[in-house]
Design goal:
The complex is a heterodimer of chains A (387) and B (219).
Chain A: E1 2-10, E2 16-25, E3 30-34, H1 41-48, E4 56-61, E5 64-65, H2 71-76, E6 78-81, H3 93-97, H4 99-103, H5 108-121, H6 126-129, H7 139-151, E7 157-161, H8 169-186, E8 189-194, H9 197-203, E9 206-211, E10 214-219, H10 221-226, H11 231-237, H12 239-245, H13 253-256, E11 258-259, E12 263-264, H14 270-280, E13 284-288, E14 294-299, H15 300-305, H16 314-317, E15 324-326, H17 331-340, E16 345-349, E17 355-360, H18 361-371, H19 376-386
Helix pairs in contact in A: 7-8
Chain B: H1 2-10, H2 12-46, H3 50-65, H4 68-79, H5 83-108, H6 111-119, H7 124-154, H8 166-175, H9 179-211
Helix pairs in contact in B: 2-5, 2-7, 2-8, 3-5, 4-5, 5-7, 6-7, 7-9, 8-9
The chains are: A alpha/beta (387), B mainly alpha (219).
């Protein structure tokens, strides 16, 4: 576990790179630091292995203050992977992987066994690749070596500084999968810096979003998607991803409902109500008084049943409203009601039971089409299946 | 042609002595020059006081521009005559190219390679000896090879202050008007430079094999 307490970094030119960072990196989790360039994410990470010394504040690794550990020793116990791979061009692949065990003066046999084991773990056969030089490998293969090099001496903590951002998309995907797979076996405490939100969502147990040297939000990917802290986070996550996750700002019925539904007063005659239905092309009317208090509902069938009775009014044939929903309710509840009771529509009322709108299947689809243009097709298809 | 050959055979012992003296002067000055210039270059790479670098490079450049004859003459009152002032003068000339190339070679090492070395727990000394020195070896060796060729030809002037060497043959040849002697000296110096360069090439190959292969770009 790594804890940063009130960490500040102020450069000699006065640039305040880190502003009072308080973070906990949990044991066995992948914590992704993300933010636009210059936000301090790499700086934060490099404080952990003392490549950068904070101006003040304390950093504890397994409850030990790293300020009192010899940086060279500290770094040998923390794996480190950088963006541009950083393999040593004058050393063979095998020698590159064994760099930290070599620094720690492992036995020769133990070292070469470890190298073979690690290379097999990422699917690079030791027989083929051990004696090659980095320049003879593709970028993806090189970074795979970069990753296992960080694992070589079996450190508890691994720091990865935008490790895959220089790779082509296919290699990047593969390496992300490798990291996820390795992590399932190894349970390391990984600090991963990236500017790629897709990458963060894919691999993170926990995401820390930074801006201008401060932590804006630190939470699980799920919670960050559901409850972005502010507009910056929202824009950084990107509308598109919120859509994909389908969890952003669940709309209320008020946003979706048809305003000013067709109503009729209870004292109207039956012929008059038919004429309203005809004119407004609806088969159902809500019955309200002059203050729009909801009294009942009348369908064309109710009216036609009693049409012969000239003295009857809408008030006499209307049925009570069995289901209505109050203003401010989240849309999913309305959809749930519509589905469960096979309703064609649902009245929305305010706290005084006044009719203010109407949810219909059509209005739901229209709303989805506005907000989620890219997925309208599939929603339409589902809607069709339900009906 | 046969005349020259006969002459050379008759003067063989003198010739060999001259060659030996020449080799001693040249290689001592290059060796000493390297011993000064390579550590100095590394120190300058790690030196944080920028103006000091500028000053040292200025001095090293300046020494390069002093005419060798003048430098030798100036050294006589300080170090007397003979082999010592000759070696000293030539080592001053050898410093600049080796210093410059060491410095540039260290700077040419990919900074990401250095960052990952630092991040993985290499101490400064380990970084210098196992990363930077092997990776800048092609630069340093080319500095040494250039210097060697120059020094071997400049060392002919050293005989003017009594240091002996191949220059002695040329000077005597001019004195007694024997072109064969002048030719023998000149060709000897040329051959020596070629052979030395070739041997250093072999050394470079051997060293890079020992340290592992060089990164493609800087070779």
């Amino acid at each position: 576990m790594i804890e940063m307490k009130n960490v500040n970094k102020i450069y000699s030119d006065g640039f305040h790179a880190l502003k009072d960072i308080n973070l906990t990196f949990r044991k066995g989790e992948i914590t992704v630091l993300i933010g636009p360039s210059g936000c301090g994410k790499s700086t934060t990470m490099k404080c952990i292995n003392r490549l950068i010394t904070p101006t003040n504040g304390t950093i504890l690794v397994n409850e030990e203050n790293i300020g009192s550990i010899d940086p060279v020793k500290l770094r040998r116990n923390i794996g480190y992977v950088i963006q541009s791979i950083g393999l040593f061009p004058h050393m063979t692949i095998g020698r590159n992987v064994a760099v930290v065990p070599h620094l720690k003066k492992w036995e020769k046999d133990r070292m070469s066994n470890r190298v073979d084991e690690l290379m097999n773990m990422v699917g690079l056969s030791p027989e083929t690749y051990r004696d090659r030089y980095p320049s003879e490998l593709s970028g993806g293969q090189q970074q795979r070596i970069g990753v296992i090099r960080a694992l070589a001496a079996d450190p508890d903590i691994i720091l990865m500084d935008e490790p895959f951002s220089a790779l082509d998309p296919i290699s990047r995907e593969q390496l992300q999968d490798d990291v996820i797979r390795l992590q399932q076996e190894l349970h390391k405490t990984i600090v991963f810096v990236t500017h790629d939100m897709d990458e963060a969502l894919k691999i993170a147990d926990r995401i820390v979003i930074m801006r201008a040297g401060s932590v804006v939000q630190s939470d699980t990917p799920e919670r960050i998607l559901r409850y972005p802290a502010d507009d910056f986070v929202r824009s950084f996550i990107g509308q598109q991803r919120l859509v994909q996750e389908n969890t952003y700002d669940v709309p209320t019925v008020d946003e979706v409902m048809v305003r000013q539904p067709v109503t009729v007063y209870p004292n109207r005659g039956l012929a008059a109500s038919i004429s309203i239905m005809e004119r407004r092309r609806v088969d159902t009317l809500f019955v309200t008084d002059h203050e729009r208090h909801l009294k009942g509902i009348v369908s064309i069938f109710n009216v036609l049943d009693q049409y012969g009775e000239e003295n009857m009014t809408v008030g006499d044939v209307m049925k009570p409203v069995l289901y209505s929903i109050s203003s401010g309710t989240p849309l999913p509840q309305a959809v749930e009601l519509l589905n469960r009771h096979q309703l064609s529509n649902l009245a929305v009322v305010d706290d005084k039971n006044r009719l203010i709108g109407l949810i219909t299947r059509g209005s739901v689809v229209r709303h989805l089409a506005e907000v989620y243009p890219t997925i309208t097709e599939s929603v339409d298809a589902e809607q069709g299946d339900n009906e | 042609m046969t005349d020259i050959w006969n002459f050379l055979q008759s003067r063989m012992p003198d010739l060999l002595t001259a060659l030996r003296e020449h080799l001693v002067i040249s290689f001592s000055s290059i060796l000493l020059g390297s011993l000064i210039a390579i550590p100095l270059g590394i120190a300058l790479v790690y030196n944080r006081i920028r103006w000091l670098n500028t000053v040292i490079f200025f001095i090293a450049n300046l020494m390069q521009t002093v005419p060798s004859l003048a430098l030798l003459a100036v050294l006589i009152p300080l170090l007397g005559i003979g082999i010592k002032p000759a070696i000293f003068a030539l080592l001053l000339y050898s410093i600049m190219p080796i210093l410059r190339n060491t410095y540039d070679g260290f700077h040419a090492v990919d900074r990401h390679v250095l960052e990952s070395a630092r991040g993985m727990g290499y101490s400064t000394m380990q970084r210098i000896f196992t990363i930077q020195l092997p990776l800048s070896l092609p630069y340093i060796m080319s500095g040494i090879r250039i210097t060697t060729v120059y020094i071997i030809s400049w060392a002919t002037l050293a005989s003017l202050i009594g240091a002996g060497g191949i220059g002695q043959l040329i000077i005597s040849g001019m004195g007694v008007n024997k072109p064969e002697l002048v030719f023998a000296g000149a060709i000897g110096a040329i051959a020596l430079a070629f052979i030395a360069d070739w041997l250093l090439g072999l050394l470079e190959k051997w060293l890079s094999g020992k340290f592992g292969r060089m990164g493609g770009a800087e070779a």
